[in-house]
Structures are given as structure tokens and as C-alpha cells.
Predict the structure.
Amino acid sequence: DTEVTQTPKHLVMGMTNKKSLKCEQHMGHRAMYWYKQKAKKPPELMFVYSYEKLSINESVPSRFSPECPNSSLLNLHLHALQPEDSALYLCASSQDSQGYEQYFGPGTRLTVT
Amino acid sequence: AQKITQTQPGMFVQEKEAVTLDCTYDTSDPSYGLFWYKQPSSGEMIFLIYQGSYDQQNATEGRYSLNFQKARKSANLVISASQLGDSAMYFCAMREAYTGNQFYFGTGTSLTVIP
């Protein structure tokens, strides 16, 4: 099973809201990733968790706050977002920090109004 | 400098024909991996094929093959017998051993299969 699940599929939020994106995998992978993707552009790496510890933060604004409660779960907490944060947010996982392919979830389409 | 370059923003191919999507890369790390992903309009990134820098043979997965030319730093994706469902965005990506789990993506190629 190479499935990564993400919820919700779509999210509309106002600039003063607080919401969370959830990602789950049951492949025993020890590295998990958040990406942001704008239309017709490649994914941009936001955060990497390796063995449940934050290993990469690509200078992401503090209005995005990642959390890795356990090796199967990855959350992205959103607060005071801007309209330009509207994008597809993709979660991915790989075997470990030196593993090979990343498996992606279906993404959450976020619209900030 | 760009780590991954995809020079074809859009490509068209007739159904049942083969198509080659270009990818060149730039690295000084002797150990690296090259990947191709397909992204349909639904948004999910689907892993297609992997080539390691030390692999002697070109990778193949069903109708997908990777034409790996190490000296030219090129890793082109060949899709044989194109199907309408192959219409999607295709991204080439690379990971270097010394940067660990950082993936570098190209700008993508939009493939349209014509019936």
C-alpha cells in the first residue's frame, strides 16, 4: 500500500481563521514533507520531518506551523493567512531521510478569502 | 543555477505514438537519484520511475522508460503507446546524497495526448 491521505480535500478560510491540514501514511515511512504548489508551477518544499523531528524549514512564514504527533501523522496549522497563500498543499512521505521516491497525497486545495 | 531543467513547457502526441520528455540536471554530487512524477489535473503527484546515478541500465516501468545519459546529465522520460489518460503535467526531480531529503523539481512539461 503506497497511500498517503490528506484531509480536507478543499478548504476555504478567511484571513482571521485558524485551521489545520492533516496528512497520514501507514507505510512505515520515517520522513514526511509539506509542499506548497501554485497553478502550473512545481511544488515548493516547506517543511521536512525526519524521525518525527523537524529537519528542514524552508524559511516559511510563522503563520504556517507544522506538527508531527507521531511517525504516521503530519499536521499543518494555519493562522492569519494571506490571499497569496491560496494554493494546493501537498504532503509526501519517503522511507527515511536518505530514502528514494517520495509518495504524495492528493493534496488540499486551500483558498484564503 | 537550476538543478533541474525541463525545456518543453508543452508537448502534444498522437494517441498510440511514443513521446520523449526532456530533462537535464546539474549536480557535482556523484551519488544522486532522478525521478519522474505525473500530475493529472486532479492534483495528485504520481511517482512513475526512478534512476540511480550508479545504475548501469536505464530504468523501465511498463510503458515508461528513462533514457539516462550520465555524461550529458540528461534523464529523458519516454512514454510508449500514449493513451488519453497520459495527458497531465510531468515533473522531473532529483535528490542528491549530500543534501539528504531535499527534492529539486523541474518546471514541468504539460503533455496532451490527441485522439
In short: The first strand of chain B starts at residue 4 and ends at 5. The interface with chain A takes residues 33, 35, 37, 42-47, 50, 89, 91, 95, 97, 100-103, 105-108, 110 of chain B (CB under 8 Å). Residues 29 and 99 of chain B are 9 Å apart (CA to CA).
